[in-house]
Design goal:
By secondary structure, the chain is α+β, with helices and mostly antiparallel strands. Helices cover about 25% and strands about 25% of the residues. The structure holds a DNA duplex.
Length: about 150
DNA sequence: GCCAACGTTGGC
DNA sequence: GCCAACGTTGGC
């Protein structure tokens, strides 16, 4: 799950412990949250569009997808005037912090790891803010996170 | 700031 | 339904 740390980063989640993953305005990602994510599932927290892009930690999904309240809020940057409460266009899931990594596992390191050659987020042109991770990819990244940099 | 890539929009 | 224009994303 990608987020820009200048908007909401892992340190914000350390403070909040849990948060609504709101503001998703992409249909593929909405469907993924609705159909593929389940309470108890684990996910990586990825920092994007920042000086040090990479995996910053892990989170757990703690609730089923529900309508994203920000779509109804005219004051929100995520307001969607076309969406109605009868037929909400956008969903959010709740996540809680599992672990903040001692260091960010950087993009270059991810790319240099053979076990991550197929990682969705590394694919050219990938723009989805939520993408699937295989069990093997999960283990590989956790392994990198537990290792000293270099 | 640049650029590639992709999703969305809207005219036809 | 096609497709060009446009907006957004995200690494560099």
């Amino acid at each position: 799950m990608k987020s820009e740390p200048s908007v909401y980063g892992i340190d914000d989640l350390v403070r909040d412990r849990r948060t609504a993953w709101d503001g998703v305005r992409n249909y593929q990602v909405r469907n993924f949250m609705r159909d593929a994510m389940r309470p108890g599932d684990l996910a990586f927290f990825y920092h994007s569009s920042c000086p040090e892009p990479g995996v910053a930690g892990t989170v757990r999904i703690v609730g089923a997808a529900r309508p994203d309240p920000t779509q109804f809020d005219p004051r929100s940057a995520y307001h969607d005037p076309k969406s109605t409460r009868d037929a909400p266009a956008w969903l959010t899931v709740e996540v809680e912090l599992v672990r903040r990594y001692p260091r960010v596992v950087g993009l270059a390191e991810l790319r240099a790891t053979r076990a991550l050659a197929g990682l969705a987020i590394l694919r050219r042109g990938n723009r989805l803010s939520v993408t699937p991770v295989t069990a093997a990819e999960w283990r590989a990244i956790e392994g990198l996170a537990g290792r000293a940099a270099g």
